User: Fold this.
Amino acid sequence: MNKKILLILFIILVIAVGLFIFFKNNDKENNIENNIINEITPEEEISVEQQRETMITLYFQNIETGNLEKESRKIDAKKLNENPYSVLVQMLIEGPTDEKLQTLIPKGTKINDVYIKGNVVYVDLSKEFVENEEGDIKKEENIINSMVDTLTELNEVTYLKILIDGSEEREFKSGSIKFNEVFKRND
Assistant:
């Protein structure tokens, strides 16, 4: 009889230990699953468009000070795939979003072509670029610096070459800036 009681106690003990181990492991697995779910689940879904966004920097003139200032914008990186230089020049033509800043590129200016050779970006603009400029030397310098500073934000660009309707034999009205040279950032 003693052996039967010991055997029953032993079986109860084995079952109790087995149940303890089972519930302990099951609790650990639930905690691991909950942690994984919590770590993977984002607070907010990110759209494909947001994943493609990139920051660009454009340079415009401050209305009050007359100095160039940066304007950073988020744009869809997909827009920059084909010709980022043309996109940036077009954004300079369209103007700033900040009310304290103003565009420098003369009204009516159109882009004929924008391309890169080596580390020089060639920007071919319509005749309105020179014809619609007022002849203010400081503003003309800011126009060039706005374009140079914006385009040299791209790593592969060091210089800017401006063409007017395919010709480099043009200049602004003041005669102070001729387009037969390349322009470099003034850092």
